[in-house]
Amino acid sequence: MLSPTTRETYRAILCEELQVAMGCTEPIAIAYAAAILRHLLGEDPVTVHAHLSGNIIKNVKSVIVPATGGLHGVEAAVAAGIVSGRYDLRLSLLTVLSTEDVPRVATYVKTHDVRVSELASTCTFDLLLEGKTDTHSARVRVTGYHTNLVLAECDGEDMTARYLCDEATGKPEQTRGDRTLLNVEDIVTFAETEPLDELKPHLYRQIEMNMAIAEEGMRSRYGAAIGQLLYADGNASLRDRARAMAAAGSDARMSGCELPVCILSESGNQGITASVPVIVYAREMGVDEETLLRALIVADLVTVHQKTGIGCLSAYCGAISAGCGAGAGISYLHGGRFHEIAHTLVNAVAILSGTICDGAKPSCAAKIAMAVEAGIMGFEMARTGREFFGGDGIVTKGVENTIRNVGQLARDGMSETDKEIIRIMLAKK
Q: CATH assignment of 179-425?
């Protein structure tokens, strides 16, 4: 039996994680901070200096910012946030931009001084925007995750508390659910037994939004069109259709598609990767709605559980964790419970762990396809009695111990890899 605290925490985590974002979340986090900066100043800043951790620069460098007419990079993200101004919408703040706003964004980029520098920080997700008008100056800092505002200051006056209130209640926001309470056995029990009324709106939104962008990626040519390649004119197997649809969602998202997604672990790509393959399998299998929703809970929480040890941004591709989560959700659809799901996860992480993250860009779709493949292979191995054993590389006895090893590999072992990736991408000697 799960304690009331565990149930409440798991519900809170799902509600916190399954948020809506339009566009890659790193540039949108910059846009969010820029919108606050603009509000603090009361007018468009004449100059903006963006101090960003290397991992943020890495993830913003190559991805297209939606609603900007195809622009990419930090300057476009800052300009989009200033033109939107809707900081209250957080990671959905670009949804209010219209075609009439596109020239305004481009003009701001061309006519205003937006400087970018790497921020020396021990936190992989850390950004500080400094803006000035002719008469005022302001600073905004977001640290730890994409909407974690820690400073909003204008002319030396700290106004952070004003922006930390819940828009609906006017009260300070609640602290985030303790993700260290997550473990695979309790996740499966929670998914099996939790009443769904409170979670249904979040899970329905995940299904609707993430399948919509996957279908858009299949209809139109985005990026390298990995999803369309895998679908092979509709002649693909179920396994390849699941991979194709997930990849197609990323194809669209990385190339500026203006459809929103339901994110997971602060990432739209991870939200798509964890959910879309499970939905594709569920629809093919004809399972009932409740089973699908419970399988999504497994996929979502398993993904978050893995990412908790890895951290928000790292050299380790987050899609791998989400692909493993998808494999766990697919196992649940087939009747798998703790034993089968644990073996699925151990098998899956043994296959593809260590794939690097070199920023958000079209090739993320191909990595997603391979991550889903690893998740499905891990599931197929488990249901046919095949498994990797403790002592096989980073695999050790017990699913929690193996997940802990992956976190250590990604967080500590790949820290120098992360720095080298950033040096290469920024063309540093």
A: 1.10.4100
